[in-house]
Structure formats: C-alpha cells, structure tokens
Amino acid sequence: MTADIAPFYAIEISRLAHALKDQGRSIIHMEFGQPSTGAPKAAIEQAHRILDSDGMGYWESTPLKARLAKHYLDSYGVSVDPERFILTCGASPALVLALSAGFQPGARIALARPGYVAYRNVLKALNMVPVEIPCGPEVRFQLTAEALSTLDPAPDGVIIASPANPTGTVIWPDELKAIAEVCRVRGIRILSDEIYHGLTYEAPARSLLEYAPDAWVVSSFSKYFSMVGWRLGWCLAPERQIAAARAYVGNLFLTAPSLSQHAGLIALDSRSELDGHVETYRRNRRLLLDALPQLGLSRIAPPDGAFYIYADIGHLTDDSLSFCKALLNDTGVCTAPGIDFDPVEGHHFIRFSFAVSTAEVEDAITRMVPWFKARTN
Ligand SMILES: Cc1ncc(COP(=O)(O)O)c(C=O)c1O
What SUPFAM superfamilies does UniProt report for this protein, alphabetically (predicted)? Predict the structure, then answer.
C-alpha cells in the first residue's frame, strides 16, 4: 500500500502566482524559502572553467569532504573524519538517506509541529511513524528536552531543526545540550537538520554534533550558500553507520552533480559575499517585524534565523489556504499557508519568506497593510 502523502500547498499557490504573472500581474514571491541571489560569483566562475575540462562522471569530491570537515572544526570546534560526509543532491535526499539507513520501517520518530512539510511526508513514505509534538508560541514552536523526556513510550528517533522552518526559531545551546542528554539516557537517536546554519541574527547556531557526537546531521548548499538549483548537500553519518549509509546512497542516489561539487568547494570560501546576503535578510526581517503591528499580526515568535515569519492569523480566518489565495489575488503577494507545516493548527497561520530583495519586502508591506486593515476592521 502506498503512503498517504499530503500535497505541498505552497507549490499550488506558487503555480497560481505564475499564472497571474503570465497575465501581466506583478507578483512578489514570498511563498518559498529560496534565495534569489544566485551562487557566489567565484563559484560560478569555477563552474564555467570546469565545464570545459571535466568529463562529469560519477564522482564524490575528496577535497569538498575535507573542506566540509574543516568547516565543522572552524564553526563548531568539532573534529569530523571527512569520510563521514556523504555528498547528496541537497538536504532532501540526505534526509531520506539518514532515515533509511539509520532507522527501521515502523520506527517512531518525534518531531515538532509545526515543522518542515517533508519530515512528516518522508517518514510516511518510508513507512515510519511521525510522532508530532505540538509546540506553541510558549516554547517558540520548538522541541524541548522536557517534551522529549515525558513522551511515553520513548520514540526511536527525533528530528531537530534549529533554526527551524517555518518559524526561524533557534534552540539555544543549553537546551540543545539538555535534548542531547535526554536522548542519550532514553536511547532516542537524533537526526539534526542544520540547513539554515549561517542564517542567524543573534548568535551563530550550534551543531548537535557538539553535544551528541553520534547524531545524524543533514545540511545543504541551498540556503546560506544560495545554491538551491545546484542540488548539493550532505549527510553526516554516525561513525558506526557510515558503511550502511554508503550502501544506501550507492543504490538510491549514486553521486551529487560533479559541477556543483566543484562550485560548492569554492562557495565554502565565499563568506564575505554570502554574509552580505545575510545582512539583506536582517534588514528584511526588521522591516517585516516592524510592519506586523500595522497588519494586526501580533502572535508570532520573532525568528532568530532562517528567513521566515510564521504568524497567527486566527482572528482573520480558519482557512489559511483560502486566505493565502485571496491575499495573492488581491495584492500579488504570494505566501505559504500554515497547513503545509501543521495539519492541526496551521489553518490559522501564514508563513512569509523574506528571502527576497529589500525593495520587494517594502513593496509587499505597502500592498499588504491596507488589505489586512480592511479585513481587521
Ligand atoms: C528545514 C528544511 N530541510 C530541508 C530542506 C530541503 O532543502 P534542499 O533539498 O534544497 O537542500 C528544506 C527546504 O526548504 C528545509 O526548509
């Protein structure tokens, strides 16, 4: 029997937005967490050079794995054997790989609700059981050590995401440490999705590896590195499971694109350009946070990272999908409905992505203020 997989509604809304654009409408795309900035210049130049000289066979870049190991040492102070890195076509296959190689069908995996839409659906596709923990504004929409310590029975695994999608909230180091300790004591294996690392506005995000050396970690070049379409990411397998993970990747995915691996190596040394994008997001975040009261939206958890604001619109609707469609139709501002991230409470939430230009954020605010005001009164 096939798993019952829910659609990604933001894709449906995005399709509508493109249809409107084709009719000549001006659209501001705030529905996806997709940087509009493109890969770092030096990475693109390298890709041009490589195209003329490389045969593009199946390949796993040893220099890239070594450079990633250095990145973990520099950023988190953790020493990782480069052989623990498995290069993938983004965090999406890394997630499938980590779950397939690290857990058995039927495994019960805890995760925060709201959370990234694919967690729930990939777990179902792999015949695993999502154990969703409702996480409200009082815990900044994040899992806590306390929630994990009281789950009965203990789950087999847990997915941690910090910063998280759709809220951008971070789990601070003391709590991460406490989560790692509860999981060690209760035998819960951790899968940490660190795709939004590099995109933080207070303090840098910490890796779960600092507190749980045998955690599975997935990450990607899609967000901070601004290389979504290059499809490059990695899975860091626990020492004992590297062989299993390699067996899976060889059969499920083979290798990541050669061209992207060459470019990714250069992107890792393009920090000043990439940090410039973070400054844009910081400005965008401030502008949106300052504008929310004018939209009548007060129930949010300010994002510590990523490029999202997840806002409660329960006073305006209990149908976030229709709400997002109406907002798009009337103003051209395209957003994601909360039901993508939370099938229970998401009917009264909306997610704004501010991974667009500052001018677009300003324009979106100008369009949205009168629209929200008209609905609030
Ligand atoms: C939390 C999270 N994990 C994983 C992904 C998958 O990203 P990719 O496959 O582009 O690396 C996304 C994409 O938005 C995400 O938000």
Answer: PLP-dependent transferases
